[in-house]
Design goal:
This protein is mainly α. The protein is built from twelve helices and no strands. Helix content is 72%, strand content 0%.
Amino acid sequence: MTDATLKDTSVRRCISLPAIPVSVALAVSWIVAMLLIAAFAEKIAPYGFTQLDLRNRLAAPGNAAHWLGTDELGRDVLSRLLVSIRISLLIAFGATAISAVAGTTLGFLAAHFRGAVEQLVLMLSDFQASMPFLIMALAVLAFFGNSLPLLIGLMGLFGWERYARIARGLAISANAQGYAAAVRQLGATPSRIYLRHILPNIASTLIVSTTLVFPEVILMESGLSFLGLGVQPPMTSLGNMVGYGREYLTRAPWIMLAPATTIVVTTLAVSVIGDWLRDRLDPTLQ
């Protein structure tokens, strides 16, 4: 082989991207499409999501005016689906972020102070894991009423104990390693040690945990909205659409099938990405 051929081969190896399975590529494409829809939902929606067309009530999909048909009030299913994707993703991302930040913070506090603080965090984690979250959510929403900020905050309590346990265990292990002790000997504050040194080293595990919690939050919000205790009219979400569509399942199944399919494919896509990230980031699987 000539020098030019060897150089060209080395350059290709340097710029080559890791092989991504077709299923993962499709999952990433779907999530990107959902994010774009959420960002521009009102601009790309053909109608207002509350706009009525009583002359075309329960119109079947496939006609030029309403591609996915209409519901019992003549509202365009496609327009409502696009806005529902925005609301459901907003709730899922907001709740997942709250859960991750709260759980990781409590895990770091337990690893740093140990003793009574650690026992308190572990006790709260056991209590959270043992209590059916759906029953607690139903009680809170029934007592305090329904609002989007309350729903996001409530959903943020879901799954935080996983982050707390993971962050605590990994932080204790990191504190026993040389780099954390060296930074501590240099006079770094605890916040700098945990945020600038320990957190980047355990971020991969936390990211994988996030991909597991995210679809569960979507399903939980959909279940609450299906029961009538989630997003309230005139606002709409994927679970809200499924809840209203169940009454017309035999006459107009498209009202429920469109949001239900979106929920299934979205949660499946996030799960596929999570499994792939786990395989890529877990050193024990390399």
